[in-house]
Amino acid sequence: MKNTRTSSALVALAAVAVLGLAACSGSGGKQEEEKASGGNNAAVADTPRVKIAMITHEAPGDTFWDLIRKGAEAAAAKDNVELIYSNDPQAPKQASLIQTAIDSDVDAIATTLSNPDALGPVVQKAVEAGIPVVEFNAGVDSWEDTGALMYFGQDETVAGQAVGERLNEEGAKNAMCVIQEQGQVQLEARCAGVEETFSGKTQKLYVNGRDMPSVGSNIEAKLAQDKTIDRVVTLGAPFALAAVQSVEGAGSSAQVVTFDTNADLVAAIEAGDVQWAIDQQPYLQGYEAIDSLWLYLTNGNIIGGGEAVLTGPSFIDQENIDTVAEYAKRGTR
Questions:
Q1: What class does CATH assign to 32-154+281-312?
Q2: pLDDT tens across 36-57, in order?
Q3: What are phi and psi of 179, to 5 degrees?
Q4: Residue extents of the structural domains in the chain
Q5: Is there a common fold for 32-154+281-312 and 156-279?
Q6: What is the dihedral of CA 287, 290, 296, 299, to 10 degrees?
Q7: Strand 150-153 vs strand 108-111: parallel, antiparallel, or unpaired?
Q8: CA-CA distance, 85 to 6, in Å (whole number)?
Q9: What is the mean pLDDT of residues 273-302?
Q10: Could you tell me where the beta strands, DSSP code E, fall in the chain?
Q11: What is the rounded distance in angstroms from the CA atom of residue 20 to the CA atom of residue 315?
């Protein structure tokens, strides 16, 4: 397996403007057919219509995935693609959704790989059945093993290392990394990266990301117990917003930083409630996952030259929040 962290041939991609689309809200484990249509006078590819399934580990209520879906829907509208979206945060159920896509005779599959052991075998079944597969968002260290054509996302270890280095620059001493889904490889890699470069103390707190009240209470309890914690590092925007309330409830002086964004998180950075965020550009991930499969199906193109295509990490903070906020108003950041 190639080490994407040391590759010198990584591809940078530019985000595209969002088309006028109606986004459908997801529900765990429920498969939905979405026939995306472009806005007024939107150009649509003059190629045969193809059916692409997108399967993710989205958990109910996590608005991060709205950005992924908007990107996917924009690409589907442009490329004359029938997009079928389904999701489940539990790896065995996500594997079943991939099998359903195989049985449905789709033309291609885009999937996340949050649990390679559970999902890898069924992805390999798709490849063996002649179905092109692209992976994105989770699984940067395992995607090649499954036979996938391409990968779009950030190297989570590198992103975590960048967080640790920034915490050092800020003089932090005790960071608590909050993991909302135990065992998901991309989340574990983020905290491991922080610990690798952060010179202070790093501790982990596992919470149930599907029970937001308990997330807040667990963070608050830990902060009340350990007053030396000066940074709360969350791995998703909703959990950062919960942590802000937990800091206040615990009477803690800790600052909140996070991976990933949504519109509310952007507003929280503007207000100074969250100090900064690591952005992996989820809209871009969704867009390129679908667009790259269309390019492969219609023209045999492969992006990245055999390497993962990195969409992050980059920091969003007070220096660039005004620009990001403009994109957030469009629903793409």
A1: alpha beta
A2: 333 434 589 999 999 999 999 9
A3: -105, 120
A4: 32-154+281-312, 156-279
A5: yes
A6: -70
A7: unpaired
A8: 33
A9: 97
A10: 32-34, 50-56, 81-87, 108-111, 133-136, 150-153, 174-179, 201-206, 231-234, 255-259, 277-279, 309-310, 314-316
A11: 28
Q: 3-class DSSP state for residue 311? A: coil
**Which of these, 104, 126, 60, 135, lies nearest to 286 by C-alpha position?**
135
For 127-181, write each residue's pLDDT tens digit. 999 999 999 999 999 999 999 999 999 999 999 999 999 999 999 999 999 999 9
DSSP letters, 281-306, are: -HHHHHHHHHHHHHHHHHH---SSTT
Task: Write phi, then psi, for 106 (nearest 5 degrees).
Answer: -70, 160
User: Six-digit token pair at 85?
Assistant: 């979206």
pTM of the model: 0.83
Written as six digits, the tokens of 61 are 């209520």
Distance (Å, rounded) from C-alpha 181 to C-alpha 235? 10
The residue with tokens 């399967």 is: 55
**How far, in whole angstroms, is CA 66 from its chain's centroid?**
10
Say what the pLDDT of residue 164 is.
Answer: 98
Class of domain 156-279: alpha beta
**End-to-end alpha-carbon separation of the chain, Å?**
32
For the beta carbon of residue 309, count every other beta carbon within 10 angstroms: 22
d(CA 99, CA 125): 8
Determine if the peptide bond prior to 121 is cis (ω within 30°): no
- Return the closest-CA partner of residue 28 out of 213, 209, 284, 260: 209
- CB burial of 220-251 (b: ≥16 within 10 Å; e: otherwise) equals bebbeeeeebbbbbbbbbbbbbbbbebbeebe
